[in-house]
Amino acid sequence: MENVTDRTSNPFGMTPPCERAVPGYGDANADFHLVGDHPGVHGGVDTGIPFTGTPAAERLQAALAEVGLLRSTGDEPEVGDFFASYLHMCVPEDEEPSEADYVELERYFDAELRAITAHVLLPVGERATEHVLREYTAQLHKHELDMARLHGTEILGAGWLVVPVRDPNEWESGDSERLVAALAEILDRDYHRESDLGRFLAGEETYRVR
To answer: Membrane-spanning regions, if any (predicted)?
Structure first.
């Protein structure tokens, strides 16, 4: 079912229990869903938009723009077939969110993810990758969370194709090019059918490293 809304920021009207939040941003019918940790890690504290306002966010935006998922970059990027959100959308006040904080806000993230029903999930960093692999692929036990190795690889989950992304704060030479190449290859094939097949193949070993 297609979502009918012209809102780019917080299209589903999420109201988490906090004074400041960075809600999901992008196309409510996107095929590609970028998943981050929280605003203090991946940006948006000042802009209110995920993955903006930091040098690391700019590096990631540039890679996404190269394959057309972003039509423009900056503090209010123009999106293509793309949505971004955080596991913990509230802005931390004084310290890192606790495990209980993540649990409390997980339902907001999960509601956005299931409303969008993207075909490709792009978890950024170790925490987001662990969460996505545990909750949406049932394959976490098969993979060591070595983000340098997982970066730009593919894992077929239960209805989603998952492509882990190394935290752009930690990118080294070649990491941007590796992600661009991986996304360009996915965009060149029928990833819709592949993600749908994941509903039946999630229990099999479908991990690939290029």
So the answer is: none
